[in-house]
């Protein structure tokens, strides 16, 4: 399966490259270019934490390993609290006592739960309109409620037993429950807390990047044990190579699925912008979140619930997994797809009776990533 996906990505590279040669008349060349445009933002959000991961694992391990050991849980699970591409994978693998658990926590959990905690919630709450914040919180809660589907599916594909999955995910499930209660009882305080947490992570990443860059330029070792900046940038570059193909292929998929999803949206009582959100969200969460203001109420909740598992599935997360742990690609896709497909009916059920409303003339055609036909 891995080779099939890699060949599909390679086909995307060819599709985007050929279109770019002819001036990008179909738009695939623009997506090809975006694969490299992502390198700068990815390096800023990833490199510092990748460099710090060995040091953090050694420092935090003194506390995490004994604490998790009391529960019989692999300390790698702690790494899953960070996003897959923000140091979660490296931290999980560094803390892991069982290499398989390091892969599972660093890829599956970090791509679903870690991404939600560190990225989707704080960034989303900073983007959405004030009146949409309750709907955003509701969508997050629904996504977290069905998240066990994602974690179980990914774990089973990894080769873990159901009992192992439930046992090892105890800290994640407890943390999720506390998060659900917090969003329900004190959403404003929770959102403020997540914003502070996200800012702290960003500061830590920047400090790591600065120290690694100084060491690279001068040879002065400021913090012993840090990974070289060149190694971190090699990871970022390898993700960029995958995204050269994944973004054009995601664009093609968006166009092929446009009409079926429009039909589905009409059947489910959602407007065309809401349907477009699904297609955009599997590439990047931020543009999908910015589209919320044009969606009907039901579409807002369903899209946010969908993002908990599906965010960046065909872009950064796929690229990172192919680059760092290609054998985990089936587990990543199983986790994200199962969680996303479980979130949609769950959110539709919770929003039953909330119909679609007109969205100021907006349509799928002018808000999706696809501007032309395939």
Automatic annotation (TrEMBL):
Q: Which UniProt keywords apply?
A: Membrane, Transmembrane, Transmembrane helix
Residues crossing the lipid bilayer are 6-23, 35-57, 63-84, 104-128, 140-163, 170-188, 194-220, 232-250, 270-289, 301-322, 328-350
Report any Pfam family annotated for this entry: EutH
Output the Gene Ontology cellular-component terms.
Answer: plasma membrane
Respond yes or no to whether keyword Transmembrane helix is given for this record: yes
The GO terms this record gives for MF are:
ethanolamine transmembrane transporter activity
Family matches, as PANTHER family = ETHANOLAMINE PERMEASE EUTH-RELATED, ETHANOLAMINE UTILIZATION PROTEIN EUTH
Q: What is this protein called?
A: Ethanolamine utilization protein EutH
């Amino acid at each position: 399966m891995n080779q099939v996906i890699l060949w599909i990505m390679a086909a995307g590279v060819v599709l985007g490259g050929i279109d770019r040669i002819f001036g990008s008349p179909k738009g695939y060349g623009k997506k090809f270019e975006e694969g490299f445009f992502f390198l700068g933002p990815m390096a800023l959000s990833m490199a510092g934490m990748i460099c710090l991961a060995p040091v953090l694992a050694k420092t935090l391990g003194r506390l995490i390993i004994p604490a998790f050991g009391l529960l019989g849980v692999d300390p790698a699970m702690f790494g899953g609290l960070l996003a897959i591409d923000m140091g979660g994978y490296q931290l999980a693998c560094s803390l892991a006592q069982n290499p398989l658990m390091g892969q599972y926590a660093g890829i599956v959990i970090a791509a679903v739960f870690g991404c939600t905690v560190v990225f989707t919630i704080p960034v989303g709450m900073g983007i959405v309109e004030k009146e949409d914040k309750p709907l955003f919180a509701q969508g997050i809660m629904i996504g977290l409620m069905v998240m066990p589907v994602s974690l179980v599916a990914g774990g089973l594909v990894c080769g873990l037993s159901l009992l192992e999955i439930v046992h090892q995910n105890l800290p994640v499930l407890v943390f999720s429950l506390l998060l659900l209660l917090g969003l329900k009882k004190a959403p404003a305080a929770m959102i403020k807390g997540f914003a502070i947490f996200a800012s702290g992570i960003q500061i830590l990443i920047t400090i790591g990047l600065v120290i690694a860059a100084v060491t690279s330029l001068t040879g002065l070792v400021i913090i012993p044990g840090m990974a070289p900046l060149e190694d971190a940038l090699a990871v970022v570059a390898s993700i960029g190579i995958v995204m050269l193909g994944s973004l054009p292929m995601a664009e093609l998929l968006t166009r092929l699925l446009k009409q079926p999803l429009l039909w589905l949206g009409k059947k489910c009582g959602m407007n065309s912008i809401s349907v477009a959100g699904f297609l955009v969200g599997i590439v990047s969460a931020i543009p999908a979140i910015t589209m919320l203001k044009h969606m009907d109420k039901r579409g807002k909740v369903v899209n946010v619930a969908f993002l908990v598992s599906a965010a960046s599935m065909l872009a950064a997360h796929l690229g990172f997994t192919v680059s760092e742990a290609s054998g985990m690609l089936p587990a990543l896709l199983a986790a994200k797809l199962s969680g996303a497909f479980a979130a949609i009916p769950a959110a539709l059920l919770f929003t039953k009776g909330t119909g679609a409303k007109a969205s100021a003339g907006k349509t799928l055609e002018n808000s999706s990533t696809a501007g032309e036909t395939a």
